Amino acid sequence: MAASLRRWYTEEMEIHRLGDLEIVIEKWGSRDYAKVSYPLRYGCFSEIISPDVTCQFGQNGELRFLQGRGPNWPHPAEWLKRSAGGDWIYYSAGEYREIYDLFGEYYVPRLSYRSNCIFSNDPFQNDLVKATLQAWGSLCERLRQFLQDIPTGSLRAFVERVCENDPGELHNRAERLHALLGGRVTVLPPDTRHVDYDVIPVVVADGCLYHCAFCSVKSARTFQPRSPANVRAQIQGLRELYARDLYNYNSIFLGHHDALAAGSEPIEFSASRAYETLEMESSHMKGARLFLFGSADSLLSSREDVFRTIHRLPFHTHINVGLESADPETLAAIGKPITAQCVEKAFERMLEINRDYPNLEVSANFVCGGQLPPGHLPSLVSLTREKLDRYWEKGALYLSPLLDGVPLQGNEKRKLLLDFREVKMRARMPTYLYLIQRL
Ligand code: SF4
């Protein structure tokens, strides 16, 4: 096939034309994650624009973002994003103000798998979205045909990388990630929204302390920290897997469900090792962040030196703690084996840590929706209002809809949103809905 090649440079990036494709190599996005009402790109990426689709790629030539072109695409601010775990996520823009109130972001991540989303319309059923996902495979085929005519140089190197990462290889890369970690990351902390869920996962402990009946993301394993050798091997494998694209990451998630319960040594070892080996200091993105889950018991049993140690790490750290309810009847109904007193103490401890450690931020999850006992909402409002003397920006309250994959309709949805508003208006801290997202 005869490819018409033209090439010109701008100050910051190379732009090439290949037949009807425009190829932009090394576009520079923002160095800071930001809450903005338009699609902002982060890090360094490359782009291919065809008549049907715009594709954006990470530094290894792996596809990260897709958008259909033309007037029928649902919304100019809406995109598909591919996670490192191999899932497609549809960034729905909808009505900005309402979305921001609900989620703290200007978009709703719509997932291609069962979760607890409250919205019923499924963008993955949209014909143009389906066609755009398929267009990507065809584009790979076309690029392969062009390849023989492209002289050695940066364009050829880029097109080769993209062709190597065709849909089959992207699937293999995701499988390699899961295998490296010893299984899939079934849930990310809600705070990872602050870095657009772009975290590199390192597993420091399997299982959790409670195995609550209501939980849809738990593992059957009993809580067990990983050995230092296992953590070292994971991090080395992650370095090889993320390779050139490490430059675009500045955040680590220490998995799985209660890394805080592993104690200060494993946390310090894993976080420091990841920071060095994954070259967080040289990342294009500013301000390294660390994310982990805790629990009521791990928060209360961790001595002060645990938080001092975390505070000294070269990260701003977010710990998310699942408290679920301050009402004894609700805790029993959802099968969470802790007492309301324990929840209250953990909530107070969270507030103390947020006040005492500038580099550390603890947020809490509570359940909402479903057929919860009548005491749940009043106990939540009272806890999140009366334990604070004024409104505090630091930390957050996340309300997680109890849905298990079945979107809400009519009155049920209205009731959930009314309950959410009630808590949001009365709690003295930022309050959002938590949509469970995996990696
Ligand atoms: S909510 Fe947390 S502690 Fe309870 S089962 Fe799920 S992961 Fe384990």
**Class per helix and strand makeup:** alpha/beta
Q: What is the highest CATH level, the class of the largest domain?
A: Alpha Beta
Distinct ligand kinds: iron/sulfur cluster
Report, as a whole number of angstroms, the end-to-end distance.
39 Å
Largest sheet report: 9 strands, antiparallel
Proper CATH architecture of the largest domain = Alpha-Beta Horseshoe
Oligomer: single chain
Give the uncertain stretches in residue-range form. Answer: 1-11
Strands in their spatial order, largest beta sheet: 1-2-3-4-5-6-7-8-9
Number of strands: 18
Structural domain count: 2
Mass-distribution shape:
globular
Radius of gyration: 23 Å
Give average pLDDT, whole number: 92
CATH level 3 topology of the largest domain: pyruvate-formate lyase- activating enzyme
Description:
This protein is globular. α6 packs parallel to α8. The protein folds into 2 domains: 5-164, no CATH class; 182-433, pyruvate-formate lyase- activating enzyme, CATH 3.80.30.20. The chain is α/β, with parallel strands linked by helices and 439 residues long. The two termini are 39 Å apart. A 9-stranded antiparallel β-sheet has the order 1-2-3-4-5-6-7-8-9. A 7-stranded parallel β-sheet has the order 10-13-14-15-16-17-18. The chain has 12 helices and 18 strands. The structure holds iron/sulfur cluster. Iron/sulfur cluster binds at residues 208-212, 215, 217-218, 257, 295, 322. Iron/sulfur cluster is lined by residues 208-212, 215, 217-218, 257, 295, 322.
